[in-house]
């Protein structure tokens, strides 16, 4: 009996010591934890690449290639997402470079890289639209698990990326038909603290032109855009645009890489101090002009040009060359982008004008 009591006593002491040590390990300051997305798990100091699975529905299943870089030290959880519009190549290529540049031992927190959010459209080389349901992925967030392929992709990105991270960079550029100057959308939420953080994220990304965007819907069920889906969930997010006409150009790729790394420094994820854009051009109003006809678009101005209110920016002709419409600037401002290829379709964008804010 005494032996049994002694064994029980020693077992209790051993169990208590184990629990104390485990608590100390769990509570060790600065230590990171395992981070999970979908079926992927990355422990502290690990880099894990794989796929988020999008189940089949009314159309085929697909998958989303991602990488988790989990730092040894705790810190911010940031997602950088490319390829929502998959003909926008510079952000896609930039994230592969970022993957090679980040060393987990130097990283505080966790970086989630979504390399190509819209893989079916990337494979088919389509602009704007998914080839299976002909939807624009960046108009269907937060998505629908029971919907078409684009809606299911959006639902997976919302649940597995937006809902699991603390901040997000939605990376775009001029699509295969868009001649576009580099700029960032600073999306206003009405929450002063959140807006202050997203403003500094925009400055940290480093692009000179920043659009002050107060037009995005505040509806959780119809947020439409990936970046806005994070914002309505009270998570800091910016949408960036660097690159044009689907071109693979080093300057645009490098700007995207530098932007991601500097936002990471802003959040304290990487060593060094973030350098904020010191002389931004603020755009306080913008308007996209859409085509009312099918036909050919003939530009009369170029990306980055200043145009006057009422100035002809381009003309639309039918398929026999007859002029159908003169497309004019709605107000005086800068051409943020303009279609740089001839096809135009009713309901699709032709150009975007931004008004420069006179005083910051």
Rg on CA atoms, Å:
24 Å
Sketch the topology as an H/E string, one letter per element.
Answer: HEEEEEHEHHEEEHEHEHEEEEEEEE
Instruction: Give the end-to-end Cα distance, rounded to a whole number of Å.
Output: 83 Å
In CATH, what is the homologous superfamily of the largest domain? Zn peptidases
Domain count: the total is 2
- State the shape: globular
In CATH, what is the class of the largest domain? Alpha Beta
The overall average pLDDT, rounded, is 92
Q: Largest sheet, if any?
A: 13 strands, mixed
Low-confidence stretches: 7-11, 15-27
Instruction: Return the CATH topology of the largest domain.
Output: Aminopeptidase
The residue fraction in helices comes out at 25-40%
Helix run count: 7
Explain what you see.
It is a single chain. This protein has 360 residues and is of the alpha+beta class. The protein has 2 domains: 35-266, Zn peptidases (Aminopeptidase), CATH 3.40.630.10; 286-356, OB fold (Dihydrolipoamide Acetyltransferase, E2P). The chain has helices at residues 2-26, 89-101, 119-124, 149-162, 192-205, 226-232, 250-266, and strands at residues 35-37, 40-42, 47-54, 62-70, 73-81, 108-114, 167-172, 178-180, 183-187, 209-213, 237-241, 281-290, 295-299, 306-307, 312-317, 323-328, 333-339, 343-344, 349-356. Strands 3, 4, 5, 6, 7, 8, 9, 10, 11, 12, 14, 17 and 19 form a 13-stranded mixed sheet that branches. α2 packs across α7 (250-266) and α5 crosses α7.
């Amino acid at each position: 009996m005494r032996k049994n009591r002694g064994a029980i006593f020693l077992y209790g002491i051993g169990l208590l010591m184990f629990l104390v040590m485990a608590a100390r390990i769990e509570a060790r300051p600065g230590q990171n934890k395992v981070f999970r997305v979908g079926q992927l798990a990355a422990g502290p100091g690990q880099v894990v690449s794989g796929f988020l699975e999008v189940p089949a529905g009314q159309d085929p299943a697909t998958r989303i290639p991602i990488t988790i870089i989990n730092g040894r030290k705790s810190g911010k959880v940031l997602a950088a997402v490319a390829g929502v519009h998959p003909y926008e190549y510079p952000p896609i290529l930039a994230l592969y470079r970022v993957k090679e540049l980040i060393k987990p031992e130097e990283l505080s927190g966790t970086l989630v890289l979504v390399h190509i959010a819209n893989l079916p459209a990337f494979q088919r080389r389509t602009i704007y639209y998914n080839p299976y349901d002909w939807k624009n992925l960046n108009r269907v967030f937060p998505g629908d698990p029971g919907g078409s392929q684009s809606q299911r992709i959006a639902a997976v990105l919302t649940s597995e990326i937006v809902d699991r991270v603390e901040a997000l960079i939605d990376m775009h550029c001029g699509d295969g038909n868009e001649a576009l100057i580099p700029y960032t959308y600073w999306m206003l939420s009405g929450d002063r603290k959140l807006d202050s953080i997203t403003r500094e994220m925009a400055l940290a990304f480093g692009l000179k032109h920043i659009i002050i965007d107060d037009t995005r819907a505040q509806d959780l069920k119809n947020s439409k855009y990936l970046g806005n889906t994070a914002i309505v969930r009270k998570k800091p997010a910016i949408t960036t645009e660097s690159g044009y006409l689907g071109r693979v150009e080093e300057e645009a790729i490098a700007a995207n890489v530098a932007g991601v790394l500097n936002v990471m420094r802003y959040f304290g994820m990487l060593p060094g101090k973030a350098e904020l854009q010191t002389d931004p051009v603020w755009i306080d109003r913008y308007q996209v002009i859409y085509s009312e006809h099918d036909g050919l678009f003939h530009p009369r101005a170029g990306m980055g040009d200043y145009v006057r209110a009422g100035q002809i920016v381009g003309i639309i002709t039918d398929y026999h060359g007859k002029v159908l419409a003169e497309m004019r600037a709605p107000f005086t401002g800068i051409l943020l982008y303009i279609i740089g290829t001839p096809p135009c379709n009713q309901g699709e964008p032709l150009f975007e004008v931004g008004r420069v804010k006179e005083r910051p």
